């Protein structure tokens, strides 16, 4: 079982995720239309580029935008969740060793204590994201089962990873579960709302170009996101 | 009765058609017929497949349903934080639903959707700047309105308005002759006070081609005279086109894209015919959006620009004041608390906040200008944008929407509100009528004229 999960399944999951992401990313930009979107994307590449970069990086900074500043609670929960959600899969020591063995590449690795802290932060933040969905009427009205499902498959690798990490019960069972959940998440990325992992950049870039080219950027006004 | 006599899918293309629809007082029969109007689901779905591409599809797909956009929408705030007013909810439950059902929706759904599209969103685009994913719900509502228009589910006044553009190339039944005659007549009225004042019609190669809002011709002709006076005193070489003078577009509010194209093309033809260095449009927000920001795309201009550089009145005025073409008598500056309405259409959506602030510096005694809060690109809609002002059916909802602006103005303590936008101006007038908070409101032109230093050679001989 373990061999299958770390062998064939791993390759399938990784392949589907990467190829899926690339294909959808390309399709996104191919589907942009200056005429339908009413943005002269290609006529002003410099203005568009500036707008896009600004639109993305401003939102990656905690409290970096009006939007984040006006809603501190979700901002903390969002970054608490996402910093770990992005860093752990790539930079955890256990993952690094695994990636080195499989792909021959490795990034820098996180200090073990720090990784623990990040992981717990993810879990706690996810709890607050769920709570928010149940408590706030303006969020509850839009929340569907699908939203909970996305949260569930996002958080499953973290929970199972922790269970393996602290060796609660059968280590190898939890490790296999963990790897299975991780692979499920990878496969879900291109096909579900989790596509935001990369389409976030596409969508923000598009609106950034819109403001950079058409809605004030060329009048010298930077959008105060 | 699938297609009604008044309410149907056909755009209005004749003066008789307009008169017929106008004869149906308040659209009573029109809305009654709408209850039976059938939906052409095939056409609807085909249109969506052809026009709803990655931008909007992705927005609808990746929306996290996080509700961060809720607080940003003034309609959510002012309607008791009703969750049904959350921007993402509004668009997911309308456009999102139509797409999920591949266009197979029923009459009741379409009528409800019409209410959401015109009475629960003014297309102010504020929420778009507060969403972490960069989802601009206002843009999607603009798109949705196009689908609703195609299916005949559009408020009565806007169906008529779009028809006006189709027939008269103006938002009202103002003909080209009416325009030129009115302008000339108004200028004559002021000739004695401003010797040499004229309205140069159809002059080729002028520095400025001036375009207006048809309402000015019909209801506020003083505004035309004021524009002429200001150009005259500034020594501008200006002209108006006898055709292609109307800058507004109710067709944009209605979602009648074909009419939008017809309308802006007449203005662009005027530019091509007269070859002015620049076009200056009047103090109107949506007109600027229609002719300068969106128009080039309707007309198929790939670089997104009108044929001649086109600026808003506040840009011209700021420039004239900054360069000294117009001089303000410092003693006559505004010496009372005054505030300024930022129009969504050219502040948030065209970055012109500096121009209006420059003007305030010239015309207000230091210390008397009080910003609203929030302001500039974060300002709230006046409450009547996107056609909301003009729809009788949704008057109640519109009056509630005015409360945001009312409270913003009250918080400044100012009794004078400058509103360089026809829509905002109307909304502020209506909010005074409705809530009586004791304010005055004005365009910039009349205020500036009163405080100008007029060069000797332009003064009347005693
Ligand atoms: C660079 C990568 C990523 C970016 C830029 C990003 C961005 C975002 C944004 C802007 C939102 C909506 C805002 C919000 O909910 O407050 C969001 C929501 C969400 N993201 Fe990500 N994300 C990324 C990666 C991930 C990853 C790797 C996961 C899963 C492990 C994930 C899971 C989620 C979930 C579950 C939500 C919904 C949160 C909720 O229920 O409120 N994201 N993300
Ligand atoms: C897809 C293949 C994956 C493999 C083969 C894998 C493998 C591993 C291994 C070997 C460990 C070490 C367990 C231990 O302490 O002994 C681990 C821990 C962990 N993994 Fe994964 N993992 C995968 C995917 C993911 C993903 C996608 C996520 C999160 C989105 C994730 C989150 C974690 C966490 C949170 C831990 C525990 C961290 C801690 O030490 O506190 N893993 N994983
Ligand atoms: S803020 Fe953006 S992602 Fe969140 S609910 Fe609103 S539109 Fe959707
Ligand atoms: S565009 Fe303006 S009115 Fe419409 S949903 Fe967004 S914030 Fe509300």
Textual characterization of the structure:
The complex is a heterodimer of chains A (225) and B (462). With 225 residues, chain A is mainly alpha-helical. Chain A has one domain: Fumarate Reductase Cytochrome B subunit, CATH 1.20.950. In chain A, 77% of the residues lie in helices and 0% in strands. Chain A is built from twelve helices and no strands. Chain A has helices at residues 2-6, 8-30, 34-37, 45-60, 66-70, 72-91, 93-103, 112-135, 137-140, 145-165, 171-191, 196-214. The termini of chain A are far apart. Chain B has 462 residues and is mainly alpha-helical. Chain B folds into three domains: 39-154, Fumarate Reductase Iron-sulfur Protein, Chain B, domain 2 (Orthogonal Bundle), CATH 1.10.1060; 169-323, Rossmann fold; 330-450, Rossmann fold (3-Layer(aba) Sandwich). Chain B has helices at residues 15-23, 28-34, 41-51, 54-62, 74-78, 87-100, 107-119, 137-150, 156-168, 176-190, 214-218, 222-233, 250-254, 257-274, 285-298, 313-322, 344-348, 353-363, 395-412, 422-435, 444-450, and strands spanning 208-211, 238-239, 278-281, 309-311, 338-340, 416-418, 440-442. Chain B has a four-stranded parallel beta sheet with strand order 2-1-3-4. In chain B, helix 16 (313-322) packs across helix 18 and helix 19 (395-412) packs across helix 20. The longest helix of chain B is centred in the middle third of the chain and has 18 residues, at 257-274. Bound molecules: protoporphyrin IX containing FE (2 copies) and iron/sulfur cluster (2 copies).
């Amino acid at each position: 079982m373990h061999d299958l999960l770390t062998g064939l399944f791993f390759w399938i999951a990784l392949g589907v995720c990467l190829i899926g992401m690339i294909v959808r990313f390309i399709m996104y930009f191919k589907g942009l239309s200056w005429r339908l979107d009413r943005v002269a994307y290609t006529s002003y590449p410099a203005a568009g580029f500036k707008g896009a970069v600004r639109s993305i990086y401003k939102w990656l900074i905690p409290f970096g935008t009006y939007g984040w500043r006006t809603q501190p609670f979700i901002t903390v929960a969002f970054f608490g969740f996402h910093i770990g959600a992005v860093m752990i899969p790539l930079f955890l020591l256990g993952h690094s060793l695994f990636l080195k063995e499989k792909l021959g590449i490795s990034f820098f690795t996180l200090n073990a204590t720090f990784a623990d802290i990040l992981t717990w932060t993810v879990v706690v933040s996810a709890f607050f994201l769920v709570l928010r969905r149940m408590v706030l009427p303006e969020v509850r009205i839009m929340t569907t089962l699908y939203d909970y499902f996305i949260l569930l498959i996002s958080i499953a690798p973290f929970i199972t990873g922790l269970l393996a990490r602290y060796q609660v019960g059968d280590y190898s069972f939890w490790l296999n579960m963990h790897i299975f959940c991780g692979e499920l998440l990878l496969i879900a990325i291109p096909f579900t709302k989790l596509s935001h992992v990369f389409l976030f950049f596409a969508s923000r870039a598009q609106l950034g170009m819109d403001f950079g080219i058409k809605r004030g950027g060329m009048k010298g006004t930077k959008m105060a996101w | 009765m699938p297609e009604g006599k008044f309410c149907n899918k056909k755009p209005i293309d004749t003066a008789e058609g307009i008169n017929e629809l106008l004869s149906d007082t308040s659209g009573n029969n029109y809305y009654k017929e709408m209850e039976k109007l059938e939906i052409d689901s095939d056409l609807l779905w085909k249109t969506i497949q052809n026009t709803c591409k990655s931008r909007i599809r992705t927005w609808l797909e990746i929306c996290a349903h996080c509700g961060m956009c809720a607080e940003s929408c003034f309609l959510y705030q002012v309607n008791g934080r009703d969750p049904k007013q959350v921007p993402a909810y509004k668009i997911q439950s309308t456009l999102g639903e139509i797409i999920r059902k591949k266009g197979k929706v029923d009459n009741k759904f379409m009528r409800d959707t019409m209410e959401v599209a015109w009475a629960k969103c003014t297309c102010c685009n504020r929420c778009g700047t507060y969403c972490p994913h960069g989802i601009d719900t206002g843009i999607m509502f603009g798109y949705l309105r196009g689908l609703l228009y195609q299916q005949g589910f559009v408020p009565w006044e806007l169906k008529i308005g779009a028809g006006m553009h189709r027939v008269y190339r103006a938002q009202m039944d103002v003909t080209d002759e009416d325009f030129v005659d009115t302008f000339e007549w108004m200028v004559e009225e002021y000739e004695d006070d401003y010797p040499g004042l004229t309205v140069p019609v159809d002059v080729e190669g002028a520095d400025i081609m001036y375009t207006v809002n048809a309402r000015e011709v019909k209801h506020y002709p003083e505004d035309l005279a004021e524009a002429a006076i200001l150009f005259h005193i500034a020594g501008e070489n200006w002209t108006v086109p006898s055709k292609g003078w109307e800058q507004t577009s109710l067709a944009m509010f209605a979602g009648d894209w074909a009419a939008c194209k017809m309308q802006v093309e007449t203005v662009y033809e005027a530019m091509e015919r007269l070859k002015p260095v620049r076009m200056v449009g009047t103090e109107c927000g949506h007109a600027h959006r229609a002719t300068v920001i969106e128009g080039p795309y309707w007309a198929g201009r790939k670089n997104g620009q009108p044929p001649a550089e086109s600026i808003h009145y506040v840009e011209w005025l700021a420039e004239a004041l900054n360069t000294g073409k117009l001089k303000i008598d410092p003693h006559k500056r505004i010496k009372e608390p005054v505030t300024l309405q930022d129009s969504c259409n050219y502040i948030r959506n065209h970055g012109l906040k500096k121009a209006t602030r420059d003007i305030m510096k010239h015309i207000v005694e230091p210390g008397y200008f009080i910003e609203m809060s929030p302001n500039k690109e974060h300002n709230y809609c006046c409450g009547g944008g996107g056609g909301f002002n003009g729809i009788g059916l949704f008057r109640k909802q519109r009056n509630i929407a005015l409360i945001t602006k009312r409270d913003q103005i009250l918080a400044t303590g100012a009794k004078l509100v400058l509103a360089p936008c026809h829509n905002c101006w109307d909304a502020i007038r209506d909010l005074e009528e409705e809530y009586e908070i004791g304010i005055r409101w004005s365009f910039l032109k009349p205020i500036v004229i009163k405080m100008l230093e007029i060069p000797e050679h332009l003064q009347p001989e005693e």
